[in-house]
Amino acid sequence: MMKDKSKDLLEVGVVVGTHGLKGDLKIRPLPTGDLALPGARTVYLRNSEGLPVRYQAVRSSPHKQNILLRLSGLENLAAVEGLVGASVLMDNADLPELDDDQFYWSDLEGLTVVDRQHGEIGRVVGMFSTPAHDILEIDGPAGEILVPAVEPFLVELDRDKDCLHVDLPEGLIPNSDDSP
Questions:
Q1: In this structure, are strands 163-166 and 112-115 parallel, antiparallel, or unpaired?
Q2: What is the CATH class of 3-94?
Q3: Domain map of the chain by residue range?
Q4: CA 63 to CA 99: how far, in whole Å?
Q5: Over the range 88-101, which residues count as b (16 or more CB within 10 Å of their CB) and which as e?
Q6: Closest C-alpha among 122, 116, 113, 101 to residue 169
Q7: Which helix (H) or strand (E) holds 80?
Q8: Rounded to an integer, what distance in angstroms lies between the CA atom of residue 167 and that of residue 133?
């Protein structure tokens, strides 16, 4: 999920298709977007010029691994077909509160990552979803490191120090002493 700094918007999904004849949009949630979208009342869709356009959500519900979203004023298939491919954003103020062990992508972006064995290994630069779990992309001196965003790898999120503590298994971080 990416944060739109100019509007304090968080990208929570992408329109991947339509569903039915009443204008439902099929949204593929980005990491942690599945936590925000089901209760959404207001969303923004990025138009072809890259500007966010505000819409009222009439209906939002889980459907398989997607979210179905119906928008006020766009309640037929012809009205929504052109929206396929658009980014779906929500205002940070409208995001639901999460449990202590949950987080939005924007909470992690840019954090320094410190491993129990190796010390500082880089910064969080991306996150993506797989069928099993979300993956954090960390960029640092050892290059790109992909870390499953699950226990036991994620140990502690220290919001005061902008630091994510991890405990990674041997072999996940390339050893600088190894020769190619």
A1: parallel
A2: mainly beta
A3: 3-94, 110-166
A4: 23
A5: bbbbeeebeeeeee
A6: 116
A7: helix 77-80
A8: 17
The number of residues in the chain equals 180
CB 3 within 8 A of CB 51: no
Contact predicate 24/18, CB 8 Å: yes
Dist. CA 167–CA 147, nearest whole Å: 10
Distances in whole angstroms, Cα of residue 83 to Cα of each of 31, 38, 79, 153, 155 = 21, 19, 8, 38, 39
Cα–Cα distance between 96 and 120 in angstroms, integer?
31
Rg from Cα positions in the chain:
19
| CATH level 2 (architecture), domain 110-166 | Roll (2.30)
* pTM (predicted TM-score): 0.69
Report which residue type is found at 49: E
Encoded tokens for 73:
């004023």
User: What is the rounded distance in angstroms from the CA atom of residue 25 to the CA atom of residue 34?
Assistant: 15
Torsions phi, psi of 113, nearest 5? -110, 125
CA angle (88 as vertex; 25, 24 as ends), nearest 5: 10
pLDDT digits (tens, 9 = 90+) for 134-143: 889 999 998 9
pLDDT of 2 over the 50 cut: no
